[in-house]
Amino acid sequence: MTAIELLALLNQQGVVLSVDGANLRISAPSGSLTDDIRAKLQAHKAELIDLLADSATGSGVVDLRDYAGPLPREAVPLSFAQERLWFIDELEPGNTQYNLPSAVSLAGELDVEALRRALDALALRHECLRTVFARAGREPRARVLTTMSCPLVMHDAAGWPADELRAALTRLCNEPFSLGSGPLLRIHLLRQEPSRHLLLLIVHHIISDGVSLGRLLQELADLYRQALDGNLSTAAATTPQYADFAAWQRATLRAAELERLQRYWRDQLAGAPLRLDLPTDYPRPAAPSYRGDWCHEQLPAATLAALRSLARAHDATLYTLLLTAFAALLFRYSRQADLLIGSPVAGRQLSATETMQGLFVNSVVIRAQIEPSTRFADLLGQVTRTTLDALSHQSLPFEKLVEMLAPDREPAMAPVFQVLFNMQNREAELPEFAGLTAAPVVV
Description:
It is a single chain. This protein is an alpha+beta fold. It has helices at about 5-10, 35-45, 45-55, 80-90, 110-125, 160-175, 210-230, 240-250, 255-270, 300-315, 320-335, 375-390, 400-405; strands at about 15-20, 25, 100-105, 130-135, 140-145, 150-155, 185-195, 195-205, 340-345, 360-370, 435-440. A hairpin with a 2-residue loop joins strand 7 and strand 8. Helix 1 crosses helix 12 (about 375-390). The radius of gyration is 23 Å and the shape is globular. The two termini are about 40 Å apart.
């Protein structure tokens, strides 16, 4: 296994590597660093440091503040992903598909005023929570407000039956945001009993992603503890902020680096069909209705163990094994021999972005080419190689890929790929609110 393959494998397992001078820093989910992975990390340590340093423009540790230049916080360029979401909001005002909710149930004596103070401190700490978006001429610009409170909206939910509570959560999660005026974070507290509350956070995707939202809840819990102890800091953070990342992305993704990435993806996707036609019960509507649903299936522990064992036997990961099975299933339904499957990546390749709030997630495209005679083991090898290669070229924003490929655009069809495979392999990390017992709530 090469250093690039190891880096790609770790990326899919939620392990984040970064460089700090001559040191290799590792942030990993509990239990993910097996003895085998540790041995590979040690064997490739020098190569990994060089590789990560190169991806950070060759300087090892990148100070993102250097890339903000003279730009005032009143007119900050957007990252490429933000630009896409801003355009979608302009095209479909009031669209709530990019609302990201997260909820926890809190049992115990909750100090509501301490929670309010913690929320205000949270908004001061992260510029993206105080960011609004407007047009400057023909271009969008982000504006960071000096102050912006995150109001805590109280609801008396005492005696609500389960269906009424579910309906209220659905309604709150689907209230539209105004990107131009903000705030782009809403917090609701539903009081069910004197010692039982439901805390609901909804944030617009343009300032956050799944990793950010999970860390936001944990940070809120930490600030709540400080507020209870009377040592809550209300100073604004001086560390690099998301606006600095956006400036860095635009400064570094140009000229030779952009051409290198585009050349890879142009070659990789040459001749691939940019549309997947699956047999469906009903015709595809002219415009998406967004009336989707969830389907849950729980695998027995023995099946999961057998899948892990099969992956190891073929020098693959559980992720690539399941992705291969998904590709085979799509082939069986569509009889399409050339498939494009999207897969999200965290996009936090700089050490400074590990704990930063903002929109970093990116999508890569995995191409699977299948014939009826293809053996599953051969397909697994193909998908593993393609995935590792794609992950080593993940720095090209998906927005730039779409721009380069220029596919025929249809309102009813997502560009390039119409199916996405996402394996959430981080253990659920519940926030620890002082004096309270937290439990997850699916919204």
